[in-house]
Every structure is written in C-alpha cells, then in structure tokens.
Amino acid sequence: MNAIKSDAAWYYLEGYLKSFMFVVLGRGMAEWANRAHFVHGLRKVLNSYPQWNATLFDGDSAVLSLILTVGHDLIGSIAATVACMAVICILFVNSLVGLLSWWGADLDPVTQVDVLLATGFSVDYTAHVAYQFYRGYGTAEDRVASSLREMAAPMIQAGLSTFLCMLPLIFVPTYAIVAFAKTIFIVVSIGLVHGLFVLPVLLSLSVSSSNPLPLPIKSEHVIENEADQL
User: Fold this and answer.
1) Where would I find the Protein export membrane protein SecD/SecF C-terminal domain in this sequence (predicted)?
2) pLDDT (tens digit, 9 = 90+) per residue, 59-117?
C-alpha cells in the first residue's frame, strides 16, 4: 500500500485520486524487436482510452519506435537513391565515357567497373555546397557566397589530395590500374568544376531568398504516430 501511495497523487481536500502510475513487465523481451512490438501494443491500448490522458514512458521508447518504422524508411531511402542515381547516370555518365575514350580508354569490362566505382565521387563535391546553401541565410547570392567560403577550400584540398594519390598510378604499366586512375582524375575534375562554378551559379539564379529550413529529423512523437499507422 505504501508503494502505491508513493506513485499516486491525491487531492486531500476533495478526497479523490488525481493521478497514479504502475509498472508493466513482459516476458521474452530480450530481443529489441519484441520490446518494440510490446510497447506498440501498450500504446494502442492507451489510445483506446483517451479520456484518461494516459502516457507510456520507456527509457528506450525513441529507439523502440524507430525499430517499427525503419523498414519503411529504408525502402523509401533506397528507392529515392536509386531514382536519383539513375537520373544522374543517364545525364552525365555518357560524358564521362566520352572523356575516357578521348583519353585513350576503351569501352570494356574494366572501364565499366571503373565508372561504377567512381560514380560516388561525383556526389561529394556538389552535395556539401548544396547543403551549406540549404542551411544559409539571406539572399541567394549571400547563401552562395557563404557556402563557398565554408566549402571551397576543403573541396580543393580534397581534390588535390585525390589527384596526388592517383598520380603514381598513371605510370603503372597495367591497363586496369591506369584506366581506374584516369576515371578518378576525370570524375574529380568534373566534380570540382560543378561544385565550385556550375552549381553555385545555378543556385544563385534559380533559388529565391529564404531562411534555412529545419533539418528533416523525426521527433519521437512523429515516429510514434507513424508506428501507430502500421
């Protein structure tokens, strides 16, 4: 009885119960997935009685709610990534293959593998500039200038370090290694040009002035609402 009293709040003058709490335990909760479904079931029960204004507390509730939605989020992220990469490859890979042919490389399995491996390099230089622009303040020109102040030097350093790493491979008398080095040289060069010149110009001309938008981070209650809809 003392334990119950310690977890309850009373209106002594009116003589009725103001609030109370109790602990719910479950078996077979060693796996995180089982705990997630258990907590989700408890939330559904509480939502069935909104008149009691009941709240479920769990120290790991954010992680448990995320477990229930991570599958749908993962599928959506993979689909968006595949779609974006398909568009980028359709628009730009032909230029990369053309430059490799101009530099003496043939269209063969080695070149195909090199192009696939080097695709990720093209994203690095433009993504950082676009993110800094997205988080900037003021007019489009001010945001572009701020983005370049933040990212121009690191991008140039990254490009130069990549060039220095690939430079010795140019002199290796092996076709596969030389073709890979040429691919990296071309991709990094195009990435620097796009990140330092092309993308800033396009952003300054096509994007209106605005304040930075909040980061797309899901709060716990949003995750819980999505879990309830599963």
Assistant:
1) 81-202
2) 888 888 888 888 888 999 999 988 988 887 787 788 888 888 888 888 888 888 888 87
89: burial class by Cβ within 10 Å (0-12, 13-18, 19+)?
middle
Task: Specify the number of domains making up the chain.
Answer: 2
Distance in angstroms (rounded) separating the CA atoms of residues 142 and 147: 9
Query: Is residue 20 domain-resident?
Result: yes
Which tokens sit at 55?
């709240």
∠ CA(40), CA(218), CA(209), 5° rounding?
A: 160
Looking at the fold, whether 140 and 198 belong to one and the same domain comes out as: yes
230 within domain boundaries = no
- Cα dihedral 213, 217, 82, 132, rounded to 10, equals 40
The better pLDDT of the pair 9, 69 is held by: 69
Residue 99 located in a structural domain: no
Cα 20 from Cα 147, distance rounded (Å):
53
Domain span at 196: 108-209
Q: Is residue 29 part of a domain?
A: yes
Token pair 């140019």 in the structure block, residue: 170
Q: Which long-range contacts (CB under 8 A, 24 or more apart) does 65-70 make?
A: 65/36, 65/39, 65/40, 65/220, 65/223, 65/224, 65/227, 66/223, 67/32, 67/33, 67/36, 68/36, 68/37, 68/40, 68/226, 68/227, 68/230, 69/223, 69/226, 69/227, 69/230
